[in-house]
Amino acid sequence: MRTYNRKGRIGYDFSFKGKRVRKLTQAGTETEALMEGAKALLQLEEDEKVKTGDVRPEFTWGEAVVRYVKEKQREGKLSLVHDLIKLNWLERQVPNLRNLPLTAINRHWVDANVREPLRDIDRKPKTINSYIQVFGHILSLAATEWETEGGVTWLETAPKFKLEKIPKDQRKRVRDLT
């Protein structure tokens, strides 16, 4: 890597995979320009590893929800509105959820942030299960179907969640005849 000076501005110049990378920087010294060039080179190498599938990139919950909603809209899922209500509740419940990495979500996290708040507002087991199932379905898609350019899935494995036990008296559907 080399530096150059053009009209008082310092830039860096290097070659990566046969392509020339050349950029003027806002750096005041050559060492700052070299540091900026080194960061650019590291980023190119990281991007190349992701494309070839050597590295699994870090995806966030927000990216997963956006992809889920787009796919289900395309498929014409009838209950998507219900899923969106559950996802909006979850987003209001957990601050900064959109930036949470998918790898940080496990059974304990779901128990603390989904199951317990729903129990606190006296939701029935079937309702709690429906929230957890939407959550688990998105993570399952990330682990099995959604792939990067390099053929690596978004998650290595999806966490398994325990569902609430539904009491026998609540299992049957009540149907009134008119």
**Count of DSSP helices?**
6
Q: How would you spell out the order of helices and strands? A: EEEHHHHHH
Low-confidence runs (pLDDT<50, min 5 residues)? none
If strands are numbered along the chain, what order do they take across the biggest sheet?
A: 1-2-3
- Overall mean confidence score, pLDDT: 87
The rounded distance between the terminal residues' Cα atoms is: 82 Å
Quaternary structure: single chain
Beta-strand percentage range: 5-15%
- Principal-axis shape equals elongated
Structural class call reads: mainly alpha
- The beta-strand count equals 3
- Main beta sheet strand tally, sense and closure: 3 strands, antiparallel
What does the radius of gyration come to? 24 Å
Helix share, percent: 40-55%
Write up this protein:
The chain is mainly alpha-helical and 178 residues long. It is built from 6 helices and 3 strands. The chain has helices at 30-52, 61-75, 80-93, 107-120, 125-144, 168-171, and strands at residues 2-6, 9-16, 19-24. It has a 3-stranded antiparallel sheet, with helices on one face. A hairpin with a 2-residue loop joins strand 2 and strand 3 (19-24). Helix 4 runs antiparallel to helix 5. The protein is elongated, with a radius of gyration of 24 Å. The protein starts with a strand and ends in a 7-residue tail after the last helix.
